[in-house]
Amino acid sequence: MKKHIFKLLAFSLVALLAIGAQADDGFFSREGKYNGEDRGKPVMPTQLNATWKQECSACHMAFPPGLLPATSWTKLMTGLDKHFGADASLSAAQASEISAFLTKNASNRWTAKTAPLRITEAAWFKAKHNEREVASNVWKRPAVKGPWNCSACHAGADSGDFNEHGVRIPK
Predict the structure, then answer these.
(1) pLDDT averaged over the chain?
(2) For the chain, what is the domain count?
């Protein structure tokens, strides 16, 4: 009888530790994975669009389409004249081509009711870049510049590789 109770207690403890480790990682919450946001895979499509790469990377990294849902990309592309304080207007043909590429390759598993314009506003981003993971002063470092500058810490960001094992935070 004692062995049975001990095994039950040991199993319960292991289960609680495993659940706690997942919850502590920021991966799961009461509402589900990243508060309902699951970006889907792949983050970067195999077929890239030259116009998207050229136009978007002229000012910043051309963010992989799989980081946001189609609704977010549509909202973003219809407001290019006020693109985060800058006029990033494109010709109608360019805007249409890039919009089609982004929405076709957008996250296909987004279940949250939100459609943020900034990747940094997404619950999954906040969970993976919280104060415990990335101290707030890191964003102010000259080599980092801010949370929008993925390439500063993720060497493979341009190709859609955000594996946390490859993260190198600049001094």
Answers:
(1) 81
(2) 2
